Amino acid sequence: MKTLTDFFRKIFQRPKQTAPSSAATTFIATAHEEMLAQHLQHATNWKYGKEKGWTADMEAGIIAFQFAGERTGTTHFQVIGIYNDADKVFSWAWAQNTIPTTLRSHAMLAKQWGKTEQHPSFQTSSVRCSMEDAWNFAAVTRKLAGAISVYRGRVGNRYFFMTTDEILIDIKTSADASPAAKAVDIAPSQTHWAKGRQKTKW
Question: What's the pTM value of the predicted model, to 2 decimals?
């Protein structure tokens, strides 16, 4: 009798969802729009996208930006994932053991969201997708984590997507400070840009 009951349960059970819900799709679109709005604001405030270079301290969880005129900026970050432009594959940070656990918690939020919404792209460690899809993954992660922004740093054919906290601009002389830069927190020059800024949790 038990076997017959199980048989009918398998036949009439509700089929599993195979595609993201309309609510999930809307959430992704909203997250993407919010991310773009933040990028526009940051481009005005601290020249987002105009940096000459970037360096990440994986132990401290801090990224440093180099701008024109010897200006620098530092902020805390977490890794969302890495997009390989050569093979068009996005690898989630939550599946990368080489990345410190403390830098993967935001990516884990995205994985949990994907599980709740039954979205396979957020639950699969590596996803073949477009760069636009990778930006959407990053936008959702930022929104879930309540992070200030998303930064994409390039290393060869690989693009590192990261959530970031408030950026602190370091200006050596007050004469160099533009009105936009003065609106951002100013940090004094330090021997090492990560010194004294490490957080136990972000």
Answer: 0.77
